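We include this case.
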Amino acid sequence: MIKRLVDYLDIHNAHLLFACHVGEAVEGTVPASLTAAAPGVRFLYVRPADWYLTIAERPDALDGPPQADGGDTWGWDLRKGCRLLLRSNPLLWSWLASPSVLADPEGLGPALRTLAEEGYSRRALGHALWDEARKTLTGYLDRGESPTALKSVKAARALLAVRWLEAGALPPVPLPALLDGPGAAMDADARADLDGLLAGGPRAHPALHRWINAELDSAAARCAALPEGAPDPAAADALYRRFVLRNNDGAAPAQKALIAQKALIEGEPTP
């Protein structure tokens, strides 16, 4: 997949800097009785410096090549990624915190994660997670229906992530990791329901449903009390300039060789 993505970006005069898997399979939110959707691929790329030397707005996103398993592939220009970083964008954090990194040939991921960990607005991220949990369940509750196992697990994951923010840490993506540390505060009955759902057990989960509702009732006020913040603009600008300039004057062939070597190690076919 990475070799095809590199070649695809090369056609568009862009260079791959970071790629990862995202989705419910990566989050660990799919009960054993269900089949997880194919993970998506998300990526960040950079273009030659001349691309940015214009006052005109230029495209800052690209769709990638289709995956054999049906998963979707798309990504952002590094400039857009850095701008969203300064706004504490929750989607970007989910990429940077993905446990399934497919390519990071120049160390962009750790560099962006450091800036995020030092400055991301816990309040903005908390409200986004609370809203995610609320919207996950609203459709069912508005119709007077019981939430499905999958929807309940997804809502619980978002609300556990809020608990991590309250403890002062940016949350990991996988549900099992969220259940450690601050997530261990979930009461025993709710945790038993959650474990049962993930194991493919009975769909009824009254204790987990009560926990989710209680968390939803208080999460908005708790998120409002989280600290504001933003990554350092000067540091983000310096990172952006460094990666743009690094990928000019012949750096791209070296990058392609590095990713091709990784593909060979992982056993991907070569043309």
User: Anything to note?
Assistant: The chain has two domains: 2-106+242-265, 122-224. The domain at 2-106+242-265 is CATH 3.30.460 (Beta Polymerase; domain 2).
